[in-house]
Amino acid sequence: xxxxxxxxxxxxxxxxxxxxxxxxxxxxxxxxxxxxxxxxxxxxxxxxxxxxxxxxxxxxxxxxxxxxxxxxxxxxxxxxxxxxxxxxxxxxxxxxxxxxxxxxxxxxxxxxxxxxxxxxxxxxxxxxxxxxxxxxxxxxxxxxxxxxxxxxxxxxxxxxxx
Length: 162
What we know:
single chain; 162 residues; alpha/beta; FAD/NAD(P)-binding domain; 3-stranded mixed sheet; 3-stranded parallel sheet; 3 helices
């Protein structure tokens, strides 16, 4: 199993003092802070790899992420010494999935109308059988989430009920 984390270092105009909540957002998920951490109730026992996305840009899709170093605790505990991840020297989510003979992707998480949507569309484009569990996703906006889920179905993503 793989998980993604927003891991912002300097994402440029993705952060804004006057966000539009479409392309710009308040400061969030800053690398090395608890804001980038995983929820304490998330059972990480079966997560084999963490992919960090958005270091220097928005990066909504998990397929834009890079494999986090194995020796780093993936909780987001403050670590000012953590070095930025270099995409040229790391493994992408797509590479990792292929190396592990994964052909189906099930996506859950935040935000359904942005990151879940982008990750699912990229998974379909990469040739994976792609599933989203809407009951395990939350969006920013109800109408936007409904539209995103309809778009995903139209793109070939299967929506699964719990």
